Amino acid sequence: MQKILVARPIFPDVIDRLKHYFDVEWNNGDALPADELTRRLADKDGALTAGDPVGAATLAAAPRLRVVANMAVGYNNFDMAAFNAANVLGTNTPDVLNETTADFGWALMMATARRITESEHFLRAGKWEKWAHDAFLGPDVYGSTLGIVGMGRIGQAIARRAKGFNMRIVYHNRSRVAPEIEAELNAEYRTKEALLREADHVVLVLPYTPENHHTIGAAELALMKPTATLTNIARGGIVDDAALAEALRARRIAAAGLDVFEGEPNVHPALLTVPNVVLTPHIASASEATRRAMANLAADNLIAALGEGPRAGRPPNPINPDVLGKARS
Ligand code: GLV
Description:
By secondary structure, the chain is of the alpha/beta class. It has twelve helices and twelve strands.
């Protein structure tokens, strides 16, 4: 039997599925440090990860490894140049999380605009003594302008929900989406700078790449309206968290909602000291059904890539399909 490592706790029934095909080593505990992950992969044919960094040194130390299946749509934890050089397949879990993640983007944007967590903390602290006409005023969502940075599948699902809120939609993306999609979504393309100047609520849903490291920093925050909100459900590192904390402190923008952080699970300490930010621990795809679908899809990819199951040799979500069928190098 081929050997695999499941590097993270996942649903036990998915482990049972994998055991049908493989000799499974399961780390049902904290994320493995890099050297421990490398050590455990040394004799494995495949692995299932969730955000664990995998690069050239790990691949070089694991000569049998042919596939690493990430339980996430984002795969910035994989060094894809190293995967390609070693002929190792990477897979991800797109699509199954689109609607759940779009729901959460909305939840976080609305909580941010309408100051839900800030006012709840006030109430829980026993500070609510009377109704006040000017308590916790925030910007409207209905009828405002939504700026979506990253108009992929999740960005589009967010845009579709904006219809009921009578919003104008501006978007920025590496490339313009097809005219039919722009028309369906009623979304207008803007440069990043124009979008930041125009939007009342900016939502970030773009993949993390070295090119868009700190794509929102002090200069970009300075372009935003002082009444605007910023919501990041994409990846830590896309926003310069220190610059954002400073902009929030100085009220250069009204508020932010963050589900992802640079260096998470650590959070920039300055973000913890400002009241006008809603903070959640990377849970945008966390519905029961969606997390199960992601785990099963990662397992499907692993099973198929290692030549087992009904899709043997045809994993559903190859990131670098060119390596399929090539010998490990
Ligand atoms: C979660 O962050 C994902 O990329 O799926």
